[in-house]
Amino acid sequence: MNSFTYVRARNQAEALSSLKDAKFSLPVFKGGGLDLVDHMKEGLIAPDALIDVRGVRGEGDLAGNGPDAVEMKGEVIRFPAAMTLAQAANSAVLRKFAPVVAMTAGSAATPAVRNVATVAGNLLQRPRCWYYRNSQFNCLKKGGSTCFAVEGENAYHAIFSTGSSPGPCHIVHPSNLAPALMVCDAVVHTVGNADRKEIPIGKLFHGPEKGVTSEHTLEAGELITHITMKARPVSGFYAIKEKQSFDWPLVFACVAIEMAGERIGKAEVVAGAVAPVPWALPAVAAALKGVDPKDERALTEACALAGKGAKPMRDNGYKVGLLSVAVKRAVMKAAGVAIAGEEGR
Amino acid sequence: MATTTPTMNRPMNLGASAADHLDRVDALAKVTGAAKYGRDRYLPGSLFAALIRCPWGSAELLSDNAAEVGKLAGVVEIKISRREGTYHGRDVGYVLADSVVALKRAMNALKLEWKRREVKTRIEDTVKEPPAINEDAKKVLDAAAKKLSAVYSTPVQTHSSLETHGCVVDHRGDSATVYASTQGTFAFRDGLDEALKLKGSDFEIVCEYVGGGFGSKLGGPGKEGLNAARISAARGKPVYLFVNREEEHLDTGNRPSSMTFAELAFENDGTITGGQILTFGGVGVARGGGGCDVPSGRYNFGDLRRAHTDVSFNAGGPRAMRAPGKPQGAFAEELMLDEVALACNVDPLELRMRLARSGNHKEMMKAGAKLIGWANRIPTGTQTGTIRRGMGVGLCSWGLFPARAEGEVVIYRDGSVEARTGTQDIGTGQRTIMGVVAAEAVGINPDEVRCSIGSSKLPVGPGSGGSVTAPNTAPPMRAAALDAKNKLLTIIAKELNVEASALEIVKGEVLRGGQRVMSFKDACQRITGDSITGRSDAAKVDTSGKGHSDGVQFVELSVDTETGVIHLHNVVALQSCGRVLARKTAESQIIGGVIQGLSYALFEQRVLDRVTGAMVNANLESYKILGPKDMPHITPVLWSKGQTKVCSLGEPPVIPTAGAVACAVLNAIGAPVRSLPITPAKVLAALAGVGGKKNEDGGAR
Amino acid sequence: MAEGVSRRSFIKTAGLSAAATMGPGMVEVALTVNGAARKVKIDPAATLLETLRVDCNLTGAKEVCDRASCGACSVLVDGKLVCSCMMLALDAQGCAVTTVEGLVGADGKPDAVQAAFIKHDALQCGFCTPGFVIAARALLNVNPKPTLAEIKGALAGNICRCGAYTNIFNAVLEASGQAVVADGG
Questions:
Q1: Domain harbouring B532, CATH code
Q2: Is some CB atom of chain A closer than 8 A to the CB atom of C156?
Q3: Which 31-90 residues of chain A touch chain B by CB within 8 A?
Q4: Residue B401 contacts residue B462 (beta carbons within 8 Å)
Q5: For B256-314, what is each residue's pLDDT tens digit?
Q6: Interface predicted TM-score of the whole assembly (ipTM), two decimals
Q7: How many CA atoms lie within 13 A of C23 on its CB side?
């Protein structure tokens, strides 16, 4: 890693002023630091100051306090940006009122990573594309002119595009928490930008057609402090992975539903690992309305729409069908319907 | 060692263990972090080195900023000695720094401008069409009742030793100590004298612990050792050079990829009459070493035409990897047999009972079938639910190879006993079993023997490859221990005025005619010098004879037909073990082989970018190795029918697993996946090919 | 996978920062490792793993993947399992760090997890072993009687290349006072 100054910020003012300190040419905020250290080890970035914001206290507390950093007031759930994934996974509030978030956090990475990785870091981590991650490939994200995945090895890349045509960059968005927060209508709260303090989670991300060198819409110097969202007590998550121990999902889906008797009254469906952004599936959500989640045939039919419009690359066509299965099983998880083969696992 | 005590908690054990409950003697050091591996040797004043590598499959170095980086704090030297590379990972120079942080910083700061060239990255780039069928084979095929025409392929698997390749060289002018991570302490020594500018007697290779090797650390010091030695010799300072994870994938060997083109002729009952099997090995920039062992000789394949060709391309070359050539061949062979069985509507186990050549294999198949519950196997192609279960079986065999080994056993006046062999312990339990052998021959408990291993100053021993260590080091160690005991008993005999042959040592007591004479410790106090040393006489040690190792494995799994994900349930692994020296370490070898085979079957593959030739998954994130949550229940069965010698045990258990997995998948879904690793995408593609057999009610069941 | 927040923030304005800064260049850091206070002089870029191994001579934690993918560098930081390869040593200031060496009792006896690993031969080459021991210890500290599935889940971030998992599971069951799975699980 390159040489840098380490700054420990105790409050928001320190964090923000350190970032503007003239003696630094490339200062960055650091939460859990996993993705940042990863980037620095690979030589993908070389910041000259790391501003540790884990200890930021006071108004808009970033750090998670106590066993459950999640608060619930009325219908609104609130948690700090630097809450770890382990805290999210173990939160009694989330497990009861937004199980999709707890499940998703608990399935990310590994136990050791979840103890360090933060919620905001999960949202803002950079893609896992193996061309992006290798400093030798001067890909679009690094200012180059080629997406190497197009001609190269694209089994794990995107099947949907945000623009009118595929690409130009074919990453899948790496955050598994983002789709979960989207089905909970989460709002990201920030400081450091005079023009706004709240960003609906769906607006936090943008596709490559709107700028390929970043995946989020935060302004320079803008710092996420906390997240609020709605309770989604009937919600679920399902990931399909090649390997059941640490692995990134091939596809996954997050679902929140409201039941009307035995049938689904309303649904929200967002998928991951299929597009450069968390991928909302409104057509599937609409088709799920009126479906009895115990009726797997009807469920399968509604979820079959998930892959509609996909434009797979040479080696990732298998994801199209998998997506429908992931959505179906996420609904089953949400509704508490047993999934074949899961008993005893 | 004539006990035949059954081992504990085993459904069946035909093994005879001298030390059924003995713990691995160095386990305490390993679980507490006290064990010092080569990588753990941080010597005062050490310099740290890293190799500079070509980042592309083929490229020419146009420019570099080495002069600039050389000025960074802590950087001692940057040397670029080559300006082109023909595979990703080809070393072209090195960086030397005075700390770990400075070294990594310099490696990041080093900017090399390369001009990429066209590359080939796989066998298919050269073998573009199925090869022609030989005229003789054609005759057999034309006369056949049934035929199978199929292509099987396996990917490159990297050894992925957790301790990467490298060493620490401490050159002190007229002597040197080298802390190496090696499977061949003496091969490492023999390759290093020139680089160190020292005679082999003037330096010592120390290898007390090795963090895995699996064949990749057999071939001497390699470029890591040579560079470290030269730099340390030139600078008179310790040099620490261990490659990183990426380099370990790229340039420390691998199991080569393979393609098998099979054209088989068979009768309606599954009897194979012959045909043609052509295999290709993907050897990267190497010219050979890509063997693919099919047919293995374990089955009768009739009148078969057979040829093998190695194919080169722009990638790191292979090295021996646990049972070289065998797992890739066994994958093709076992799946072929199941496809033949399916075509003939014959139970695949029944077919193997007919085609197998070894009676031992047949007996093991019978025993294993009971343990896995083969009677409950569901006939292939009859399941329609979402989750479909499958069973598969595979065979393996391994020979016994001679290797030069000597041993020494030292009995000290204070009653302590030391067994000495220079051979290293790569995790097989060498340190443990040497103690068992020496203790038994002397007549004391294994925990009373201290084992000194892993040094070129100790008696010579083989590299840990080919499963030769235990079979070849046990006899000389036994001879040395007997020699030491006889020397001790001669002293006692003189005192008692009897023949030494009238005395024996049993459980730490010196006996004469069955009566206690004195304790072993008291006997040792009669030693006049500091100690007596028993030596093996190579000429008198018998390492010949039968030591053939057979094995049979059964795998039970289920396939999720909606996701293509495979869940492993049970593996039964029967393995010839001959005479078991230590049950726990023996069973660990079997379990470990199975797990590596399962990982090969389902997850592992080197992914080379087809355009640039760069390996894009040179890490442990997207180079996927089986982890705890992927584990089935594994039942290792030590099988030792009639064998009295120490047999090979390390290599064979990795051979049959992937084939058995592939057969189980075929059994479950009714379609073969002929390409490893068996990923969800391949399973789904195979299922799609089955067409109408897919469940009609939407897959729900 | 967190760097917390936006890193694209390079507004250059003169500002006074009251925040504590360290580096660039060598800094002296106070760490508490296995109960003992230590002062080490390190570069801010040094990871906790490098610092433990090189500066503290605690080489039990290993560098294997160097990217938090394998668990070989596992240590406890304030009782929580972390990959020390991806944590800056400066991030561990003020925290209690426990390495595999620190599990050994004052009497020199191994911890129950370590003892069970020995008994069940839950290791071969031993290079991954400290990481597994620490991960197992972290599990048992919060879940004294884990099920087999919970054990597999808690160890899912650790890789053993020799293939000792079967015996590792049994060792963890044993260390938690539960019956082992015959022939492993």
A1: 3.30.365.10
A2: yes
A3: 41, 43, 46
A4: no
A5: 999 999 999 999 999 999 999 999 999 999 999 999 999 999 999 999 999 999 999 99
A6: 0.97
A7: 24
